[in-house]
């Protein structure tokens, strides 16, 4: 049961973090900075997908 609670907390945290990055203004950022942000967003989306799949299994 604790794993499910932890997964839900992680999902909420990652979703909130992803939302911050998605709402970030990219004005004035260099190409490398934008690529770094895109990489972080991709990792967060993968983690969110994995957490949702894990919660569905429980």
Describe this structure in words.
It is elongated, with a radius of gyration of 14 Å. It has helices at about 1-20, 30-55. About 85% of the residues lie in helices and about 0% in strands. The model has no long low-confidence stretch (mean pLDDT about 95). It is an all-alpha fold. The protein has two helices and no strands. The longest helix has 27 residues, at about 30-55. The termini are close together.
At a glance:
With 58 residues, the chain is mostly helical. Helix content is 83%, strand content 0%.
Please give a handful of descriptors for the protein shown.
single chain, 58 residues, mainly alpha
Layout of helices and strands, plus pairs?
Layout: H1 2-22, H2 31-57
Shape: elongated
State the low-pLDDT regions, or none: none
Distance between the termini: 9 Å
Mean pLDDT: 94
Number of helices: 2
Number of distinct beta strands:
0
The structural class is mainly alpha
What order do the SSEs take from the amino end to the carboxyl end, as H and E? HH
The amount of beta strand, in percent, is under 5%
Cα radius of gyration in angstroms: 14 Å
> What oligomeric state do the depicted chains represent?
single chain
Q: Bin the helical content.
A: over 70%
Characterize the largest beta sheet: strand count, sense, and whether it forms a barrel. Answer: none
